[in-house]
Structure formats: C-alpha cells, structure tokens
Design a protein that fits this description.
The chain is of the alpha+beta class and 52 residues long. The chain has one domain (10-49). The chain has one helix and two strands, in the order E-E-H. The chain is elongated. The protein binds zinc ion (ZN).
Length: 52
Amino acid sequence: MPHKKLHLATKDCRVCGRAFAWRKKWERDWNKVLYCSQRCRKASKQTFEQST
Ligand SMILES: [Zn+2]
C-alpha cells in the first residue's frame, strides 16, 4: 500500500459533547484528554467543584 493515510483519532468532549480530533500537542497524553478545549476542561472542573 503506497498510500499512507494519516488516521486522526477522535473523541467526544465530556462537557460539550462535540467530537474533536487528535492534535499534535496531545500526542503524549491523548489517553488522558477528555475535553475539546481548556474552556471545557475548566467548565467540567467548575461543575465538579461546585458546592453551593
Ligand atoms: Zn468541549
């Protein structure tokens, strides 16, 4: 097979539910990436830590 197709993995964001694709900056911890963006990561933390 001469064609080398780059397969980009995708995941669904835990917060907004949108699918996002693998990024170079995540190549080391793709397994740990759960959110599409920092904003969603923060949002999830805020929800999680809300104690009122
Ligand atoms: Zn998101």
